[in-house]
Amino acid sequence: MRIEAEQITRIFGTARAVDAASFAIDQPMVVGIIGSSGAGKSTLLRMINRLTDASSGRLLVEGRDVLALKGKDKRAWQADCAMIFQQFNLVPRLDVVSNVLHGLLNKRGLLPTLMNMWSREDIDRAVQILDRLGIAEQATKRAEALSGGQQQRVAIARALMQDPKIILADEPIASLDPMNAQIVMDTLRRIHEEDGRTVIANLHTLDTARHYCDRVIGMRKGRIVFDGTPEQLTTGAARDIYGAGAGFSEATTSTAIDASAPADQAYADRLMAD
Ligand SMILES: Nc1ncnc2c1ncn2[C@@H]1O[C@H](COP(=O)(O)OP(=O)(O)OP(=O)(O)O)[C@@H](O)[C@H]1O
């Protein structure tokens, strides 16, 4: 699926939160978007998913401008690009399976979702996805009873329930400890590798972007100032993206993730077995 952003811009008042962003993604990959706070990363992702309207520009997906879609077509596009968030955005008092089934909202409509009316087939698929992510044993618990890392995996399961072509992740690990951050990033990476889905993730740490992404887009003050491979993301390039002076230290944008060590081998093995 080819995705081509042409001069996408979002203006809030007089501020250009995203200023003429252009890029093309020709094949499924994991893309990391990095940049300082306020650089426009969230606004860019939200425009792709149509949670925020663009002020101008086009997003061509297989030749069709998805920024111009309305009604049913817009909802179908939103089902194609599932979103996950820093704060997971689950329904806390609802059980895990029901939260996952909410991924069908765009496909099944509001009423069945609110009434919690699901087919046996849908429920089985939700449990299968939870099993794939290593959290099937949590299926009947309330979402609020789970750890942050488990909740983010439920959010990923909800996204997968939509069977999306793209997963958009807005700071998916910013609220997690290093071990859970690693599990969640491993999960997103494997979903790309095994399912061929594109993942576009806003990340606030350079080392995560370098380790997990095929491509990194750097934003500064609303503009795309870097677009390249992790290898091309040198300390100098990072300094330009973050607008830092000569005293710039990568450590300020690093987590303590030891990405070379498997965080949870049993979980990883189960995921690979599917
Ligand atoms: N709804 C809004 N109304 C007004 N200004 C907004 C709105 N949303 C974002 N902005 C502004 O747009 C700019 C970009 O914000 P955005 O949240 O996209 O940046 P970000 O790179 O994701 O930052 P962070 O990492 O802190 O989330 C900021 O100056 C922000 O204040």
UniProtKB/TrEMBL annotation:
Positions in coiled-coil regions: none
GO CC term, one of those recorded: membrane
Domain ABC transporter: 3-246
Superkingdom of source: Bacteria
One Pfam short name: ABC_tran
SUPFAM superfamilies the record matches: P-loop containing nucleoside triphosphate hydrolases
Record GO terms (molecular function): ABC-type phosphonate transporter activity; ATP binding; ATP hydrolysis activity
Name of the protein in its database record: Phosphonate ABC transporter ATP-binding protein
